[in-house]
Amino acid sequence: MKFIALITLCFIPITVHPQGVKIGELNSYKLFPAFLEPYKKGMELALEEVNAAGGVLGRKLELVTRDDGGTPGDAVRVAEELISREKVNLLMGTFASHVGLAVANLAGQRKVLFLASEPLTDKIVWENGNRYTFRLRPSTYMQVAMLVPEAARLKKKRWAVVYPNYEYGQSATASFRKLLAQAQPDVEFVAEQAPALGKIDAGAVVQALAEAKPDAIFSALFAADLQKFVREGNTRGLFRSTAVFNLLAGEPEYLDTLKDETPDGWWVTGYPWSEIGTPEHRKFRDAYQKRWNDYPRQGSVVGYTAVHAAAEAVKKAKSADTEKLVAALQGLKMQTPFGPVEWRAIDHQSTMGAYVGQLSRKDGKGIMVNWRYADGARFQPSNEEVRKLRKE
Amino acid sequence: MQFLNGLAGASSLFLVAAGLSLIFGVSRIVNFAHGSLYMLGMYLAVWLSGRVGFWLSVPLAAVAVGALGAVTEISLLRRIYRAPELLQLLATFALVLVIKDFALWAWGPEDLLGPRAPGLAGAVSIAGRQFPQYDLFLIALGPAVFAFLHLVLTRTRFGLLVRAATQDREMAGALGVNQRWLFTGVFALGAALAGLGGALAIPREPANLEIDLGVVSDAFVVVVVGGLGSIPGAFLAALLIGEIKAFCIGLGYSKITLVAEFIVMAVVLVLRPWGLLGRPLAEARIAAGTESLAAPKAMLVLVAALALVPLFSDAYTLVLLTEVFVFALFAVSLHFLLGPGGMASFGHAAYFGLGAYGAALLVLRAGLPMELALLAAPLAALAGAALFGWFCVRLSGIYLAMLTLALAQIVWSVAFQWDALTGGSNGLVGVWPSGWLSSKVAFYYLALLACALAILFLWRAVDSPFGYALRASRDSPLRAGAIGIDVHAQQWAAFIVAGTFAGLAGALFAFSKGSISPETLSVPRSVDGLVMVLLGGVQTLTGPVWGAALFTWLEDAVSREIAYWRAAIGAVILLLVLAFPHGIAGFIRRRLTR
Question: Across the strands, what pairs with A367?
Answer without folding.
Answer: A360
